[in-house]
Specification:
Helix content: 40-55%
Order of helices and strands: HHH
Number of helices: 3
Structural class: mainly alpha
Number of domains: 1
Number of strands: 0
Shape: elongated
Radius of gyration: 16 Å
Distance between the termini: 25 Å
Length: about 80
């Protein structure tokens, strides 16, 4: 374990700003999926179709940002920190 790692006991509970899917992946998916959707069936189909082109590099970049986001959250005492990024 590296010295700069923040232990789980200091993680804030359920912060959407720290959830990789909430702050990055869903934004990408929304841009690609929510274009003239007729019904729920079409929405499901579009999500499945658009997930495939999201490259691993996107996920890797999001993961690389996570520690910085976590530290920003700690610095903000668990409050809002998105503006500081």
């Amino acid at each position: 374990m590296t010295q700069d790692f923040i232990p789980p006991t200091l993680w804030p509970p359920n912060s959407p700003d720290l959830n990789l899917v909430d702050y990055a992946v869903w934004g990408i998916m929304q841009e690609r999926v929510y274009k003239k959707i007729k019904d729920v069936g079409e929405l499901r189909q579009r999500i499945v179709e658009e997930w495939e082109p999201v490259g691993q590099h996107v996920i890797d970049n999001v993961i690389r940002q996570w520690r910085r986001r976590l530290q920003s959250c700690v610095d903000a005492d668990g409050g809002q920190f998105e503006h500081a990024l």
